[in-house]
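Chapter summary example.
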Amino acid sequence: MLSNGDLPYVSENAYLQALKFEPDIVVIKLGTNDSKPKNRIYLDEFIEDATAMADAFAALSSDPRILLCLPATVYNVKDGISDSVITARIIPAIREVGSRKGFEVIDVHSATAGMPGNFPDKIQPKAAGSRAIAKTVYNGITGEDIDFTAQAFPGVKSRGNGYDKYDFTYNGRSAVAVVPHDPLPGNPWIWRPAFFGEFPSV
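The structure predicted for these 202 residues follows.
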């Protein structure tokens, strides 16, 4: 979130692409890495930098709804990333920006508390931790609760010949995967490079 320090998001191409996208809804979940010792020296600038980032989105012609997320819970000090710093300095700063500017705040920190097993390296979530974050953000946007289940493959899920079918792009190529109802032990696969719609018994 900080404009100074290591790898500020505002210096990333993804930030410029997000602005150009003219979104209707903007969810900002940053701040964890700002708790590193090398970034803590700039924490007095956090409110100003967070406000500037959110204001840049708020000024877009799409007039987006802005939601600020509190960082997820950190379960161990790693690379200097510290939950105590997040709790004492970063979370209050994000709440203050939300209060000053009228932006909504989503409490991802509380939603990820008490689940250290879902954060194998104590910072980054695995699938279950990511689902907890996604459910919390979904609720923040819609006000509704939802239960997510992980897809077997990325892309658009549909049905094909009675089976779950996924259409997605891989390395710039269109791909389709069909998942059997009861996979054989070891999950063997058949690779079909052409004539996908023919011979569905395969």
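To summarize the output: The mean pLDDT is 92.
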